[in-house]
Design a protein that fits this description.
Elements: E1 5-11, H1 22-28, E2 33-36, E3 44-51, H2 58-62, E4 66-74, E5 76-78, E6 87-90, H3 92-95, H4 109-115, E7 121-125, E8 134-135, E9 138-139, H5 140-145, E10 155-167, E11 180-188, H6 194-204, E12 209-219, E13 222-223, E14 249-251, H7 254-261, E15 266-268, E16 284-288, E17 294-301, E18 303-310
Parallel strand pairs: 3-12, 14-16
Antiparallel strand pairs: 1-3, 2-3, 4-11, 4-12, 5-6, 7-10, 8-9, 10-11, 12-13, 15-18, 16-17, 17-18
């Protein structure tokens, strides 16, 4: 079996994305592993990992849209924007509804659904202070741990859809008091922080909030129900790259394969279906040998296929 390909992992909550790769190193006897799209320590769900030369394809996985579910806690905010962080703000109106001089603060499902349209489409989002974004070469989370002042700039993201899928459930270990919880599903672009989304939803409702139970269900067209837990990983879970990335596959004859391996382009007059229709985007194809085994990533130009990099075994 080839040592290069993709592995679909179902990361457990409490495990770092980096640690989730350890079984790949053991099962496939290689140090050349990587993954696309880091998940928070307490988040769970789909990670698409790669071994060998397939690691060069990870940026194309990273660019795919993603689907998450998460639980929104209204009434308090923490430093990490997670349910068990250090409380930095508590909505007293929400947690003391009967106190003298306090106004009862409630949010129902209709209230939440009324603000969701504000977050659909292209929006600017400020990442959490505890994140991997670099500031002058240092991770924001490292600076936050040192007590440094952090000012992260908004980043443009795209949210395709956002909907409420449940309400009223409890997460253990909350460090603050919430007066309402809602479960949501979000389909969004690369770079979206679900923790920031929870914070901003709460603020749009006139209160504060944080999140728990973040789970990634999909990256592109790949869903977590195809994934395996790290402790159950076997060599059979290594997938050919064309089973994960949907670039068209063109089969080459032996002479064309030799040309591609040497870095030369080959003439190509046969129409290629399912090419990218994005204006200005490169039209990627997988080049394969006559048996259909992918040996490289190429770019289709009218009348020829040019190699981008080699993926096959030596």
């Amino acid at each position: 079996m080839s040592s290069s390909g993709f592995v679909l992992l179902d990361k457990i909550a409490g495990e770092t994305s980096f640690k989730a790769l350890f079984p790949l190193k053991r099962v496939f006897c290689t140090k050349r592993v990587g993954h696309a799209g880091t998940l928070d320590l307490r988040a769970s769900g789909l990670i698409i990992a790669a071994t060998g030369r397939a690691t060069r394809l990870l940026p194309y996985i990273e660019a795919k849209d993603k689907c998450y579910t998460f639980r929104l806690h209204l009434g308090y905010e923490t430093d990490t924007l997670e349910w068990d962080g250090e409380v930095v703000e508590q909505d007293k109106m929400g947690c003391h509804p009967g106190a003298e001089g306090d106004r009862i603060h409630t949010v129902n499902r209709a209230d939440l659904e009324a603000v969701l349209p504000q977050f659909i489409g292209d929006i600017d989002q400020v990442p959490p202070n505890y994140c991997a974004v670099k500031i002058n070469g240092h991770r924001a989370s490292d600076l936050a741990n040192r007590g440094r002042e952090i000012e992260l700039k908004p980043r443009r993201i795209h949210i395709e859809s956002l909907k409420v899928v449940g309400e009223g459930l409890v997460t253990e270990g909350c460090t603050g008091k919430s007066f309402a919880t809602f479960d949501l599903e979000c389909n969004c672009s690369k770079g979206t922080y679900i923790r920031s989304l929870g914070r901003d939803l709460a603020r749009a409702l006139g209160t504060c909030g944080c999140v728990s139970m973040i789970r990634r269900h999909r990256i592109g067209d790949v869903t977590v129900d195809r994934a395996v837990r790290g402790d159950a990983l076997t060599p059979e879970h290594l997938l050919p790259v064309d089973q994960v990335l949907d670039f068209p596959v063109v089969r080459l004859n032996d002479d064309q394969v030799k040309a591609i391996r040497l870095g030369n382009w080959v003439p190509w007059r046969t129409p290629v279906e399912n090419l990218s229709t994005t204006p200005g985007a490169e039209k990627f194809v997988f080049t394969a040998d006559k048996d259909g085994a992918v040996i490289g990533l190429g770019v289709y130009d009218p009348g020829r296929i040019c190699p981008k990099f080699f993926l096959g075994d030596d």
